Amino acid sequence: MRIDLHAHSTASDGTDTPAELVRNAAAAGLDVVALTDHDTVGGYGEALAALPAGLTLVTGAELSCRLDGIGVHMLAYLFDPEEPELASERELVRDDRTPRARTMVDKLQALGVGVTWEQVARIAGDGSVGRPHVATALVELGVVPTVSDAFTPDWLADGGRAYAEKHELDPFDAIRLVKAAGGVTVFAHPGAVKRGRCVPESAIAELAAAGLDGIEVDHMDHDAGTRARLRGLAADLGLLTTGSSDYHGSRKTCRLGEYTTDPEIYGEITRRATGAFPVPGAGGRER
């Protein structure tokens, strides 16, 4: 089985619609794909309606968190999307995304960059606006060559010149809320130093003690040494280890299935979940 547990659609900051995402996942030879848009479950319906035969969809979300001033992305799988407390927190985060993006545009303009809110809104479309949309605007203007190059202290990285804060969950609260909604939690790309500061291993140990299920080890932003270190840490803490592409369509260079999760780990994730269950495709309708 080929299993990719981290992918984004136009419901947040990917460039594939949810229907395109599941069709592309099947074309890439995946057996299982997780839809993990940022702080939203808005792509579920379209993805399920278009789900090809032979592909299983895992519903999820990537929750925006912050711990001691450091950004933490928490992958939540197979939770009940209707659970009210978690749904309310996701809404608070989404509601804060637009004013935050506007603030980043204002900061960029003050730095002499000719970005406009209209440009960023056009790029975001119906998705939940975020930093990658602002980064794409910088690419369009020729300020940086790639979206990844916008996530530096010069521009949009945490604490960068054009960075702006938004409402984010405490990761301990995120774990509690996801568990209460019957879901499973995995710390996304915990060693991605190129994105900015990372939480120390002691914090990961505290999150594990609070119920964290796993950490994402095999990821494009982790070099070989980081993967080995995280795998050892996970073994010490009794955490599951996953691998994922963090696919964003054409917005990033990673490909669906570039990194995958061991089937036994996937099986354990599904066994732990009680809020929702993977959906096998029966041949979705074209859109």
Helix content: 25-40%
Strand content: 15-25%
Content-based structural category: alpha/beta
* Mean pLDDT over all positions: 95
**Major β-sheet annotation:** 8 strands, mixed
Question: End-to-end span in angstroms?
Answer: 27 Å
- Which spans of ≥5 residues are poorly predicted at pLDDT below 50? none
Q: What is the tally of beta strands?
A: 8
CA radius of gyration is: 18 Å
Helix-strand sequence: EHEHEEHHHHEHEHEHE
Number of helices: 9
The outline comes out as globular
For this entry, give a set of tags.
287 residues, alpha/beta, eight-stranded mixed sheet, 9 helices, 8 strands, 15% strand
Written overview of the protein:
By secondary structure, the protein is an alpha/beta fold. It has helices at residues 18-27, 44-49, 84-110, 117-124, 131-140, 171-180, 201-209, 224-237, 263-272; strands at 3-7, 32-35, 56-67, 70-77, 184-187, 214-218, 240-243, 279-280. The radius of gyration is 18 Å and the shape is globular. 51% of the residues are buried.
